[in-house]
Amino acid sequence: MILTEKTAIYDAFGLRIRSEIELPELLAAANSEAFSDVEIELAKPEFTWPIWDQTQDHYAVHGAKLFFYIHEVASFCIQEGKRIIVAPCENMDEGRLRLYLLGTCIGALLLQRKQLPLHGSAVAIDGKAYAFVGDSGAGKSTLAAAFIDRGYPLLSDDVIALKEPEAGAHGAAIVMPSYPQQKLWQQSVEQLGRTGQPYKPLAYSVSKFAVPLSASFLSSPLPLAAVFELSRTEANAVSLSQLHSLAKLPVLQNHTFRHFLIAPLKLQNWHFSATVRLAASVQAYQLQRPIEGAFSAYEMVDLILAATQKGREANV
């Protein structure tokens, strides 16, 4: 059953979430009596939805509401950054529904709240957060998993929720931890030497797995020190180069989570200003790895650790 026996309270993405749907991936709130930032509710029969073609996925914006429909999963409504209403389809897969709740729904909700979400993974290195962004298949989660193997805890996977300093204050944006789980492709599991582990396949894929984390997850917010854009290249070796000034902007803008929603939500001006402020407060790098041939995620870990060490020494 997706219904909880009673409304459950969770802490994730810097938000207190009160939900009528079980979200076992999330951490239970330490104080269940505290005021909630977000309500997740099952739709009442009288709630009005757009008219969908039930064989197609759809998105629509009506005022302060973002609606979207995923075929054979659910209709979702994200409202004013405070409320998510869900109408599950008959015989839907609960795991797949939760993937959309904790992915697209949270990403859209953060945009409505004018909190910048990046699409990638973030790990903690010596008291600072470092984000890995890139297109699908670039290796973001694999790289984060390699850092975890080296003893650096995960802050977030897939959706990186950022919180800007208060108005008038100076300093870096803060990465708000998500929840203790990664998603890894079969190829990544093999590359990291984790075959044989009892990982559960994600609902939509038999070749991508939910990887639970416990001691390897950090639940404390950390300032964001740098962003690394992962990409694939025809070259035969891994390479790392630092980006400066305006070159940072495309990285932050293109790898905003669910970037295609920014225009329908009329957030273009805010998004531009937010990414400009972020670019001014963080270092940014481009990390390229071969499309083909032998390379190791741990090679990339070594390059990044060397770069972060130089960055910390330069700021001393």
Automatic annotation (TrEMBL):
InterPro entries: P-loop_NTPase
Source domain of life: Bacteria
Protein's recorded name: Aldolase
